[in-house]
Amino acid sequence: MSPDESHIVYQGGLDAIWLVDASGKGAHKIITIPSGYQEGFAWSPDGRRVAYSRRKRGESSIESYDLDSGQSNVILSDPKLGSFCWARDGRIIYSRQEEPPNETSSNLWDIRVDSRTGRVRGESRRLTNWGGHMFDILSAGGSRLSFVRKRFRCTVYVGDLEAGGARLSTPRRLTFDEQINWPTAWSPDGQSLLYTSDRAGHLDIFRQNLEAQVPLAIVAGQEERRDARFSPDGRWILYLASADSEGRRQRAEGRLMRIAVSGGPPQPVLGVAGYPGPSRVAAIGTAPGATLLDHPRFRCPSAPQSLCVLSEKMHNQVIFTAFDPVEGRKREMARIDAPLPDSWDLSPDGQWIALGWRWGGSRIRLLSLTGQPPRDISVNGWRNIQCVAWAADGKAVFATVWASKEPPLLRISLDGEVTLLHKGLLHTENPVPSPDGRHIAFGENTMESNVWVVQNLDESRTY
Questions:
Q1: What pLDDT is recorded for position 280?
Q2: Which of 194, 234, 250, 420 is most buried, with most CB under 10 Å away?
Q3: How far is C-alpha 222 from the geometric centre of its chain's CA atoms?
Q4: What residues does 132 pair with on adjacent strands?
Q5: What kind of architecture, by CATH, is found in domain 7-142?
């Protein structure tokens, strides 16, 4: 609503802002942004301008539109800009993400703007020095500033599979910290679980017995490490590692590493192409699943003496390559063109890959590594398959589904029979069945979202 309450601006799609009379008449488009998208807008105090944020990959700016002339100008350009508002005293107050290695926090800044011309008057000024805040929405009225603080967390749960996997007992919580914990693999004896956690500020690998309250750090340090698995012979723990230079992700390459189960220093197995984006930022601002599911990924069968399989994204393909935990890269096994799968898993015997597509997919594709034709399993009644995992006996696939309400954990037989095992709260992700088929672990995402208010907002103070 404009300051005099005569007009309303609203978002129409991702690329347009519209203006309408307060009576609901005369709606028309005033701003079109074909080369990016806008997120958030605000009236100037005198109601003559509308400010909006414009975002593209690696770029972010706050711009203003003059209602009289129809011209726009850039107020501020900074790739780390977040939410903003235009206060009554003429300041634009905005959030700015901190520089590495503190990119999991943002703070408030302000800059004075001439409402008549939309031009900046003076330099930006930092208002707060807080940690652990990521601002989602800002709103200023009088001497008060309100904002939304949002944070995702992922907890590991374990449930007992009954009736041949057709039923799941009430899952029990394994991790009790308020961080991102991502289950990846069971020990061969089914008594402990490997998972990735950001509890130290970056992704490390932990192992926790089912009856233990505290995990054991397997690999920790300044690099990011994820996706830990046991080798087929049980001698090694394999994982993916990425160099993290002052928090800036080196996305061109990563490494697949091994560490002996009995202990010792990590050793390289092979280099891998590409690496997922910064998980620490995703854990604060958005759901972490998309980052942790990206390529490269790898899986190992339970059959001893078998080769593991690595997936790497190259151009518009995903290439699957066999490798030995000691000898390294072997031969290409398969490749897939677009649309690229969002999730995949290797069957216990190492002969099939199950593929899932998050957006719109209502099928699971089985891709043979032994020359047999591919097969599709129709998942009737469910779409947006997010994560897939083979059952220990190779006769079914477990899957989670992206849903806006009560996201399910499913068991899907190879002939398409679907059994609902569990309904989650916000996001249920990454099912990991135990080798003996008696248990299944999965991640349960929750989101903390609260509105905060800063009282007595004074431009002469910092907070």
A1: 52
A2: 194
A3: 20
A4: none
A5: 6 Propeller (2.120)
